[in-house]
Design a protein that fits this description.
The protein is an alpha/beta fold. It is built from four helices and seven strands. It is globular, with a radius of gyration of 14 Å. The two termini are about 20 Å apart.
């Protein structure tokens, strides 16, 4: 079986950098979660209560995802990375996760933001990854903190 690093990266690219380093270190495949409608800089301005990121999170809206992992059944270990939004995964991550069967997968969650650590982020993600064995969840600043 194989490993895959899946990530959603916001405007700074911090998550992308860590995910790509991790995939290289593990010899794993990599997949970027992208919304069908890409985020603009204004969409990501969380200090604006009317910004798209805030409307999605507070409105608990699904965010359609561009692309799909066709060979999902080949992977038994998944590393899932994202920045924390409102103490949880961004909605685009939740929508992505709902589209797959997580039974039998070992899941390692890594977050690249959040000043207070990962908190209950993994617990909030559980309904979207039913059947996965969540091995760990942590806030990181580099790939070396994951493996």
């Amino acid at each position: 079986m194989k490993s895959i690093v899946i990530y959603f990266s916001a405007e700074t690219g911090k998550t992308r950098k860590i995910a790509e380093e991790l995939a290289q270190k593990l010899g794993a495949d990599v997949f970027e979660i992208k919304p069908e409608q890409p985020y603009t800089k204004a969409d990501m301005k969380w200090t604006n209560p009317l910004a798209r990121c805030n409307k999605e999170k507070l409105g608990k809206k699904d965010v359609p995802v561009a692309g799909k992992i066709e060979n999902w059944s080949e992977y038994d270990t998944v590393y899932l990375g994202f920045p924390i939004w409102y103490y949880a995964a961004p909605n685009v991550v939740n929508t992505f996760c709902k589209g797959y069967d997580w039974n039998g997968k070992t899941l390692h969650i890594f977050a690249t933001s959040g000043s207070s650590g990962i908190g209950k982020t993994a617990e909030k993600l559980e309904p979207y990854v039913k059947g996965a064995n969540i091995a760990d969840a942590k806030r990181v600043t580099s790939a070396s903190e994951i493996v």
